[in-house]
Design a protein that fits this description.
heterodimer; A: mainly alpha; Rna Polymerase Sigma Factor, Chain: A; Arc Repressor Mutant, subunit A; 2 domains; 10 helices; elongated; B: mainly alpha; 7 helices
């Protein structure tokens, strides 16, 4: 119920209510910015992309018919705006090759992850995201922060549910590989001290 | 299959610690300012009538003019302006009773009247919705 009350008034926004629009921006800016930052890998550009996203949201708000959640619709715009920006600047990052870690390697990564403190984990995540391809970084971020449902992710990315499943598996595998590399680097650095 | 599940669990654990990044201070204000500027521009430059109405009116006017041109017969209803000017001083005369418009003038007045009515209706509707 409180969620419904907190929803911004879309009609008011379309008619130019600045306060209602500010409320909508405040609700979604952090995730939009995080996705943009992880996809375009540059803070200034991420801010621009995030701004463009909200301008597009405002311009096409009348076209939103409620066929999916408002947040899903906004993040779809954000995701596509990031891809457009990357395409415009012609610097699509090459994906890390998918080579699944063995059971032993996974066990090592798991143990090392347990030993990490909260702050260290955040640093590791950021480093991994910097190396992950734009599409994978966007997919993983949106999945873990927003939807966590393949059906919603399928709507968000405008692909079939099975495609999302495969893409998510590959993104996780790449992330695990980068995580392992980061752990190894960390161990080497610690050993050096 | 086993390692797939393990991989999922590891990434789930890792991402559970993930935190959202925040944009720079004043991000919301900047976006709202930009959007409001767009909104105001949209209001300022939005034409009162859609373009097709103008095309319709244009076609009507041209149509009436063509019709008037074909129906126009100079000898029947042509106003003798010199004669009218001579009689201008004599207001008591029957000048205005004799005064006759050409068909062309009649058509132009009719079109102008229709356009005025149309504009008035549309303008009233528009202003009502704008200031409601």
């Amino acid at each position: 119920m409180s969620q419904l009350i907190d929803q911004p008034d879309l009609k008011a926004i379309a008619e130019g209510d600045a306060q209602a629009f500010a409320k909508l921006v405040d609700m979604h800016k952090n995730l939009v910015f995080t996705v943009a930052l992880r996809m375009v890998k540059n803070k200034e550009e991420a801010e621009e992309v995030a701004q463009d996203t909200f301008i597009k949201v405002f311009k096409s708000l009348k076209k939103f018919k409620g066929e999916c959640k408002l947040s899903t619709w906004i993040y779809r715009i954000a995701y596509n705006t990031c891809l457009d920006s990357i395409k415009k600047h012609k610097r699509m990052q090459g994906a890390v090759p998918v080579s699944a870690l063995t059971g032993m390697e996974l066990a090592v990564v798991n143990t090392a992850l347990t030993a990490l403190e909260h702050k260290e984990k955040s640093v590791v995540i950021e480093k991994c995201m910097q190396q992950l391809s734009a599409k994978d970084a966007g997919l993983v971020t949106l999945f873990y922060f927003e939807e966590k449902k393949l059906s919603e992710m399928a709507v968000l990315l405008d692909v079939a549910e099975n495609t999302v499943k495969v893409q998510l598996f590959r993104a996780r595998a790449r992330l695990a590989k980068l995580l392992k590399e980061q752990m190894e680097l960390g161990m080497i650095e610690n050993y050096g001290k | 299959m086993e390692s797939k599940k393990e991989l999922e669990q590891i990434i789930d654990r890792l991402m559970a610690e993930d935190r959202l990044q925040t944009p720079s201070e004043g991000f919301t204000e900047k976006v709202v300012d930009k959007v409001m500027a767009i909104h105001i521009t949209k209001i300022e430059y939005r034409p009162l009538l859609p373009q097709w109405v103008f095309y319709g009116i244009g076609i009507l006017v041209v149509g009436f003019m063509v019709l008037g041109f074909y129906l126009y017969t100079p000898n029947e209803n042509y106003l003798d302006y010199h004669f009218a000017l001579e009689k201008m001083g004599d207001w008591s005369s029957q000048l205005f009773l004799q005064f006759q418009f050409s068909k062309m003038v009649m058509y132009v007045i009719a079109v102008a009247g229709i356009l005025t009515c149309l504009q008035t209706i549309v303008l009233r509707k528009h202003l009502n919705s704008r200031f409601a």
